[in-house]
Amino acid sequence: MIATLRGRVENTRLVRASGRYLGNPYASLQLMLAAGGGLLFFGLIMSASTTISASVHTTNEAPWTQLVREAEFVVLSVPVFWLAVRMAPSSYRRLAYPSLAMAVFGLVGVLIPGIGVTINGAHRWIQLGPLTLQPSEFAKLAILLWGADLLARKESLKTLRTAKHVFVPLVPGFVAIIALVMLEPDLGTSLCFMLLLLGLLWMVGLPYRFFLALLGVVVLAVTALAIAEPYRLQRLTTFMHPNLDPQGAGYHTMQGLYALSSGGIFGVGLGQGTSKYGWVPNANTDYVFAVVGEELGLLGCTVVLALFALFTYSAMRIALRSQDGFTRLVASGAAIWIAGQALINIGYVTALLPVTGIPLPFISNGGTSLILTCGVLGMLVSFARHEPAAVAAANAAASGGSTARWVRLLRLGAPNDNHAADTRSAPQPSANLQSPKASPWDRPSSATPWNAVTHFEPKQSPPKQSAAKQSTPRRRGA
């Protein structure tokens, strides 16, 4: 019966049309542009809707001050996206260590008086002329590139066979970055780094026992950091019952729920919401999803969730179709990072998680976050252009004398096979398994294309000699 049902589903027009479209060599590119463009469009319209009220009720500035500031970052984000699309995957790999060094300097700089900018007791920003930048946002991409390059190099050297080579120096590097971020302090951003670490280790094929042990350590660390500060502990204990303290610790959650519920199915209309005028805290950043629910209703929230799902699917599709280990890890890590950050933000807005202050990617107001997400979007588009099928289609079109008009207008050039797959990190299947009871993580790379690296080998003790061999040999002539 199940086979019959599957056959009927597969024979429907929608499924057949979807299969034909996904067979298009540029499907990943088009899906990524649709998802990223849709999310950026939502971000722009919600920024225009919320920044005016934020200027009046939060910063006591002129009504158009924050909107003009956001427009400046939009102008900066356009060339960042263009440069990110033009760069080949091999160029991102060369930027891994320089970008990590710059991120560390930035994270240290925010802690130095006179360099870092302090807002509400937090040292998270650096003032560069008229722009205020947050180095911890750039550090997310930097440590993702570094971690992917590290694991890809170790895989090419066939050293990812023991837990020691997987964890060192990857985990200490992440711990050092998280420690710098917690000195600001910023627990929400630290959670994003933990998501990146878990995502890389998951995609590299870490066995379940190691992954679950590391996940337990992460949960304990987050719990310890949460109870270390009274306001974090209060958020942790009141998010499930915010109505017990609606004017205190539960104020953020209650106002967000009120805004979501007042929107109904279709919302009250774009720009017509009232909760952003001093009711919902941080309506243009942390709680922008509540304003989406109020002004665009359940329909708008569903569209936002669908766009994030499409973004995640497109990034994972790019990872699965890539022949380069570095590209595969970066694309999958970016998918887990963006999707995880969105789930955490929407989770605490809807009272499913404690309030952490993580912004909603692409949509929350924030100049540094906007520049970073545009850069990540451009990077994933570049990876999609360098898929083997896309490279073959582009080369065939170029040999026929035809090139896409948008490629010529943006001066992107044709993708190169040398950039599509880096032989230094090409996955090599291994026949070694972890134990007689093989888990799915121990299958060869041909079974799971993205899990092409790790086949852990337990340390083997030297074979014991038999009693006959252990006995003292007889002397000659005895």
Automatic annotation (TrEMBL):
It is a multi-pass membrane protein. Pathway: Cell wall biogenesis; peptidoglycan biosynthesis. It is an enzyme of class 2 (transferase). The chain crosses the membrane at residues 21-46, 97-119, 163-181, 187-204, 211-228, 296-316, 328-350, 362-383. It is found in: Cell membrane. Residues 425-437, 462-471 have a biased composition (Polar residues). The keyword Plastid does not apply. It catalyses: [GlcNAc-(1->4)-Mur2Ac(oyl-L-Ala-gamma-D-Glu-L-Lys-D-Ala-D-Ala)](n)-di-trans,octa-cis-undecaprenyl diphosphate + beta-D-GlcNAc-(1->4)-Mur2Ac(oyl-L-Ala-gamma-D-Glu-L-Lys-D-Ala-D-Ala)-di-trans,octa-cis-undecaprenyl diphosphate = [GlcNAc-(1->4)-Mur2Ac(oyl-L-Ala-gamma-D-Glu-L-Lys-D-Ala-D-Ala)](n+1)-di-trans,octa-cis-undecaprenyl diphosphate + di-trans,octa-cis-undecaprenyl diphosphate + H(+). It comes from the Bacteria. InterPro entries: FtsW, FtsW/RodA. The keyword ATP-binding does not apply. Its EC number is 2.4.99.28. Residues 417-478 are annotated as: Disordered. Keywords: Cell cycle, Cell division, Cell membrane, Cell shape, Cell wall biogenesis/degradation, Glycosyltransferase, Membrane, Peptidoglycan synthesis, Transferase, Transmembrane, Transmembrane helix. It holds the Pfam family FTSW_RODA_SPOVE. Its main location: membrane. Peptidoglycan polymerase that is essential for cell division. Belongs to the SEDS family. FtsW subfamily. This is Probable peptidoglycan glycosyltransferase FtsW. It comes from Jatrophihabitans lederbergiae.
